[in-house]
Amino acid sequence: MTASALAGELGVPLFTIQLDGLITRYLGETAAKLRLIFEAIQQTRAVYFFDEFDALGSERATRNEVGEIRRVLNSFLQFLEQDDSDSIVVAATNHPQILDRALFRRFDSVIEYGLPSPDISEQVMRARLALLDTSQVNWRDVLDAGKGLSHSDLTRSCEQAAKNAILQRHTRIDNDELVEALRERRAAHR
Q1: Is the pLDDT of residue 28 over 60?
Q2: Same-domain check for residues 102 and 124
Q3: pTM (2 decimals)?
Q4: Which pLDDT score is estimated for 98?
Q5: Residue 112 included in any domain
Q6: Dist CA 74 CA 173 (whole Å)
Q7: What is the rounded radius of gyration, in angstroms, for the C-alpha atoms of the chain?
Q8: What is the per-residue pLDDT across 33-50, written as a single tens digit (0 to 9) for each?
Q9: CATH at 142
Q10: Given this model, what pLDDT does residue 61 score?
Q11: Burial of 53 (0-12, 13-18, 19+ CB in 10 A)
């Protein structure tokens, strides 16, 4: 969401780099693909978003890390160091503790999003459901079910409840369906 907001505010495109398509089992191929991405970064002003970055940026000293990924990370660090473009590179992870420390020195800013407070959680969900009828929602139950979930998880749960309402051909959010969507999100993280 941050990368999308940056791109929107700057009026530039947002490109998401899917690491599962970038990382291959063939020696040197991943670094070659990475080089192509950084060439695009030089040529096209945009926001380039690397999601689930821990797949690429995990600590190089980790015992069970394979040599190819260490080489790819070294390449990434060099490309980032040499980048003088007007593009913005954004990387996101849910596991910052396993990232290589050198990455933190290469990025201009590190933003950590903590879990939302109950007040923020309610604001996020009300905003996401603003076009629908939430008059039957018991916000106390919903907030209890959403406790400890991220902004993204809250948003996705609201989207699920909204889809259910639309599929049932109405615009009223069902309290139980929203609570169930939040519980399903929580269960997915276990």
Answers
A1: yes
A2: no
A3: 0.72
A4: 84
A5: no
A6: 49
A7: 20
A8: 889 999 999 999 999 999
A9: 1.10.8.60
A10: 52
A11: buried
